[in-house]
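Ticket #4471: structure export looks truncated?
Reporter: QA, pipeline team
Priority: medium

Steps to reproduce: submit the single chain below to the structure queue and open the exported record.
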Amino acid sequence: MGALVASPRRPFTATIEALGAPVRARMEDVSWHGGDPRCPRWDDLAYVRLAHVSFDGDVREGELVVARRIAARTVALFRRLYELGVPIRSMQLVDAFAASDERSMSADNSSAFNFRTIAGTELLSQHALGLAIDINPVENPWRRPDRIVPAEGIAYVDRRDVRPGMFVRPGPVVATFDELGWEWGGDWRHAFDDHHVVWSRPT
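Actual output as written to the record:
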């Protein structure tokens, strides 16, 4: 099965909602910073709950916050990953890790919105706009010859040894990214960001 596990027998489920008071309370001054005029307004974001396959083949429910304009496209992507049998380790808001990208990645957590800059720069990340999603960062680490992030991903540096949850080209997961219009960070050349997908097309 390579990167996949058995396809689930239960139907895929997902909901898209506005960010209600309980979600806002979790995010305020953690992943969301309303004092910065560059930060998306609450109404520009959507709260998505969706089914995903776990590494033991069970079905669990995860949560993401994304830009409202790509919420339906996010559901379409995860529907396809679910139907393929792509396992996902964890899917919690990054606020569960105090908005620490490093802690979230080390926990193999898949997440999306986080109002932050690109590491080592003053430039806003696409995560800050709710347009990027990180999926299985341990199985798909950010890679350069001199550095692996997260460090827990070192066991997955050999991309020829394809195991559940890994994304490689050619492969069914990356083919799905291509088909549905998502840019995959594994195609980048300054560093391979195998867990990162971003929506960069007009909507």
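Status: closed, not a bug. The export was complete when the record was re-opened. Leaving a note from the reviewer for reference: Residues 14-198 form one domain.
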